[in-house]
Structures are given as structure tokens and as C-alpha cells.
Design brief:
- The protein has 218 residues and is of the alpha+beta class.
- It has two domains: 41 residues; 169 residues, Immunoglobulin-like.
- The strands form two sheets. Strands 1, 2, 3, 6, 8, 9 and 10 form a seven-stranded antiparallel sheet that branches. Strands 4, 5, 7, 11, 12 and 13 form a six-stranded antiparallel sheet that branches.
Length: 218
């Protein structure tokens, strides 16, 4: 074999190897770029309190859900916003409850306010997940308290309860730490941490829930 032939063969081998390496690098860059674009466009959920009339965080005269019967009550609600550029799919909110320093076994799934029992007939439908469009928001029913706005009284024995299929009843004069985690199929979960302590009075309801500043995303 002449020197020229050997050189051509060697050069061809080098070109072939370079082509494979270039293809691998190109594929990695393509995949990486796609993942970067998906990451930039991903849904981004943010949770906060819903603001009521005149800046109050309490809504009075709202209808509440309990055994699919409407009655009057005081609500505390949260707002879940999607600040991302894609819809957040199948969003649901789970509540983790700590009574004192002990975690309760109950983990209620909270109710999305737009799931009206007059439209959605079964518990599975009423408490089903929702999609949150890009730059849109959904209201989340968090807790409620029996209340008669005409008599302005709280029924005897009434407690703050979760708005969920099986309501959790918070005892009066008891300290709770609550962690609300909002999940979606295609988004990072977001946690919103609050503390709850209610003295059993009507005026105390407004200040019964305080946000913890160390809530974070997981």
C-alpha cells in the first residue's frame, strides 16, 4: 500500500470519527436546548391568600359545601396563580396538618371554588383536579366556619373545618401548623405554610391564620 493510500484511509477514518462525535454533540445540544426551552416555558405555580372586600382576607356570606347542602359560613381562601407560559395540568391541593409538633394522619384534598356542586354532581367531580391556564389563576377553598350573618353568631360547638370531602375539624385554642402543597402533572409543586390558632370568637377568626415566611417550592 502506498503512502498516499494509507494517508487517505487514515484521513477517512478520522473524518468518520469526527462525524460521529459531531452528531452526538449535536444531538446532546438539541436535547439540552429542548429541555431548556421546556424549563423556561414550564408552568410556575404561586400560592397566596385571596383578598376580600376592603382588603379583608375573610369572605362573609359565601356559600359553603358540606354534604352537598348550601349554608352560610366564613371562608378563608387561597389563590393559585400560574405565572408560566404553559397550562398547569391536573392541579390539586393537599393539606398536611401538624397539631402541635405531631403530624395528623388526615391529609385532606382541598376544594377548587369553581367546582360548583350544582354542576358537578358526585364527590369525585366536585373535588377533582383543575387545569390552570398560563397567566391565569384559580381560587382554592381552604377552611370555613359556620356563621349566621343575620344573627351574627357562631353556632355552639362550631369549629373551623377544611373544605374537603371529609372535613378536618380544628379544635379551639389549639396551635396548628398547616402545609398546603399544590401539585400539577407538569409543574414543580408549590408549598404554602401557615399557622392556625382560633380562640373561638368571631373577631378572632380574621387573625386565626397567619402565613409562615419560610414556605418554599419543592
Amino acid at each position: 500500500m502506498s503512502l498516499v493510500q494509507a494517508t487517505l484511509q487514515n484521513t477517512g477514518g478520522i473524518d468518520w470519527a469526527v462525524a460521529i462525535i459531531a452528531a452526538i454533540i449535536g444531538a446532546c445540544l438539541t436535547i439540552g436546548l429542548k429541555e431548556l426551552v421546556d424549563w423556561l416555558l414550564r408552568p410556575r405555580l404561586v400560592v397566596g391568600f385571596e383578598e376580600g372586600p376592603l382588603g379583608s382576607e375573610t369572605y362573609i356570606h359565601n356559600l359553603r359545601i358540606k354534604n352537598f347542602i348550601y349554608s352560610m359560613g366564613l371562608f378563608r381562601r387561597l389563590v393559585v396563580k400560574n405565572l408560566g407560559r404553559k397550562p398547569a395540568m391536573n392541579c390539586e391541593a393537599k393539606l398536611t396538618i401538624f397539631k402541635g409538633n405531631l403530624r395528623e394522619s388526615d391529609t385532606p384534598i382541598l376544594h377548587w371554588a369553581r367546582k360548583d356542586p350544582e354542576i358537578y354532581l358526585t364527590p369525585e367531580q366536585v373535588f377533582s383536579p383543575v387545569h390552570i391556564n398560563s397567566r391565569d389563576e384559580e381560587v382554592l377553598d381552604f377552611v370555613e366556619l359556620d356563621y349566621n350573618p343575620e344573627e351574627r353568631v357562631i353556632p355552639p360547638g362550631a369549629c373551623i373545618e377544611t373544605v374537603s370531602a371529609n372535613p378536618y375539624r380544628f379544635q379551639r385554642n389549639t396551635f396548628y401548623k398547616l402545609l398546603i402543597t399544590v401539585f400539577a402533572n407538569n409543574a414543580v409543586s408549590n408549598q404554602f405554610q401557615v399557622e392556625l390558632f382560633w380562640d373561638g370568637t368571631l373577631t378572632g377568626f380574621d387573625n386565626s391564620i397567619v402565613r409562615k415566611v419560610n414556605a418554599h417550592q419543592t
